[in-house]
Specification:
By secondary structure, the chain is α+β, with helices and mostly antiparallel strands. Helices cover 22% and strands 34% of the residues. The protein contains eight helices and 21 strands. Strands 7-8-9-3-10-11 form a six-stranded mixed beta sheet, sandwiched between helices. Strands 2-1-4-5-6 form a five-stranded antiparallel beta sheet, with helices on one face. Helix 3 crosses helix 4 and helix 4 runs parallel beside helix 5. The longest helix is centred in the middle third of the chain and has 17 residues.
Length: 351
């Protein structure tokens, strides 16, 4: 039985010409962490609210565990769905201690044991008597997660939980939250507009656009093999090229030559396609590679983001975004040669 199942769910708001969620179907398996990823207004937060019961669908069904909670004439209110929520601002009660926040609304008979168990899970046993204002941002987030898990929920819903954290703490908490959810064997849906959060924390990423699912898959699949121009551009950066399927399974003919690709979708030779080439897919200083010149080079810590002007056989030179090793020193005008590797080359659909 699925942890969560949405079938053809639609939601619109009075006075708005746009459909917030449009015939959306989604399955989350028990123990799976799924991220709804997309820009503002794509429907991801509305989808979370539909699962939680804060919104009623116009049509379709929402199932949690083994019961329908919305649709087919059924409506289960939020407090009876067995949902744990972690909000963007943590939403801790300032007048209650850590233990008081975690134990809020727990049964009196088992409250102490359940609070201790939840705090052990998030590594905060020694903080039970602290007040929220005495905690760091990361500790507050762990308290919010402990409160959500203390009720043994059917599903945990996390609404942009990292948005208020600074960059270093954000990276640390991605790993912490994933570890805690996995140790609890929790089924979780995480909402984010940040592709780095989604790729780091998720078992599966659902990219949304205009209320619909644009692509769903593992973080690696969504990044390395985007299906559409929108996914290629939103989840990271990409170079988009026009091409045609080469005869004999040789790859894709483009202005950069024939590019290797393991995913041509069995298209016949001569078919016109668009191609996504990730910046990670270029090898600098490759023998026999494509000649070019550096237009800009920006040190980004884990890499150097290089824009280069590449020479092509026919037509004007084209600009490419390439990731170089962080120790590489490059200056504007430097000549380089690049070769395309196959792993990050994908045939995509135009929007």
């Amino acid at each position: 039985m699925a942890g969560i199942r949405l079938i053809e769910v639609t939601k619109s708001y009075p006075g708005s010409e746009e459909i917030a969620v449009d015939s959306l179907s989604l399955t989350v398996e028990p123990g799976e962490i799924v991220t709804l990823l997309g820009p503002s207004g794509c429907g991801k937060t509305t989808t979370l609210r539909l699962i939680a019961g804060f919104e009623r669908p116009d049509s379709g069904t929402v199932t949690l565990g083994d019961r329908i909670v919305a649709g087919n004439g059924t409506w289960v209110p939020p407090q009876k769905r067995g949902v744990g929520m972690v909000f963007q601002d943590h939403a801790l009660f300032p007048h209650l201690s850590v233990a008081g926040n975690v134990g809020f609304n727990l049964k009196r008979s088992s409250r102490a044991a359940d609070v201790t168990s939840a705090l052990e899970l998030v590594g905060l046993v020694g903080f039970a008597g602290r007040m929220p204002h005495e905690l760091s941002g990361g500790q507050q987030q762990r308290v919010a997660l402990a409160r959500a898990l203390a009720h043994d929920p059917v599903v945990v819903l996390l609404d942009e939980p990292f948005s208020s954290l600074d960059a270093d703490l954000r990276v640390q908490m991605r790993g912490e939250v994933r570890r805690i959810l996995k140790e609890a064997n929790a089924t979780a849906v995480f909402v984010s507009h940040d592709q780095r959060d989604a790729l780091a924390i998720s078992d599966s990423v659902v990219v949304m656009r205009e209320g619909r699912v644009e692509q769903a898959g593992t973080p690696r699949d969504v990044y390395q093999h985007p299906h559409t121009r929108f996914v290629a551009s939103f989840v990271g950066h990409s170079n988009i090229l026009a091409g045609t399927i080469a005869p004999g399974g040789r790859g894709i003919e483009t202005s950069l030559g024939v590019l290797p690709s393991r995913h041509t979708h069995d298209l016949p030779p001569g078919t016109a396609v668009s191609v996504s080439v990730r910046p990670d897919s270029f090898e600098l200083d490759a023998d026999g590679g494509i000649a070019g010149r550096v237009v800009s080079a920006t040190y980004a810590g884990t890499s150097v983001d290089v824009t280069l002007e590449a020479d092509v056989a026919h037509g004007p030179a084209i600009d490419l975004l390439v990731h170089a090793h962080p120790e590489r020193i490059l200056s504007v005008g430097d000549p380089v040669r690049v070769r395309v590797l196959p792993d990050f080359v994908a045939v995509i659909e135009d929007d």
